[in-house]
Amino acid sequence: MSGKALALHMDVAKVCFTGSTEVGRLMMVYAGQSNLKKVSLECGGKSPQIILADVPNLDDAVDATIAGIYANSGQVCSLGSRLLVERSIHDEFVKRFTEKAKTAFVPGDPLDPETTMGPLVSQSHFNTVMGYVEKGKSEGATLLFGGKKPQGFDKGAYIEPTLFDNVTSNMTIAREEIFGPVAAIIPVDDADDAIRIANDSIYGLGASVWTRDLSKAHKMVKEIEAGTVWVNCYGDGDATQPFGGYKQSGHGRDRGMGCLLSYTQTKSVWLKL
To answer: What pLDDT digit, counting tens, does each position of 56-70 carry?
Structure first.
């Protein structure tokens, strides 16, 4: 309610909103209904992590990919929930990912320093994420691990790290933002196929590319529709790097000089003496 009140207020000149694409649309409507205030939006994401056969180090890619989806229990808009893996390394990637993910992110008490994965934000959101898990199974994806409450955590909105394989771009779990620890592996034929599938989304917040070929990396960075593209890493950066999305992931940027400029107005003055 406070966001709506601010966005409709005639004395507010700028709104910067982070949240769902659905509410982001409303912020623009409210701006139009009031004083045409500036609106910056950082909304949903369905970011691809692309692992090609010429990956410099597969173990490094696996580690970064795991952290790139399961960190904060998957509750980060820019996390890479679509894993686009070249077919020739698919089986080995799945093997290593499965071995490491089960020990890297273990659900537990958030107050325990040993815990690497806390609960989801609410029971309601837990039900939403579990609904996506059931949707993935019913639409034909292969559940490799997870997809349920961990043992000993009947109370609380806990869900195990979850991985689906044999996912296609038309499946719900490949198209809609789940905002939970649910990853979907989509096999790809090559870099061009990966670009096509990466862009087959209403979202465009982040992406990663793992390749040792610099020319291929430059081509993919240019053609992938995302506000941030990481090469041979995921989530790296600092306060100087602008952050924001393409398409229905929003517009405008956080951080960097562009962010500061979005809170200013340009005034032209022509003085005749």
So the answer is: 999 999 999 999 999
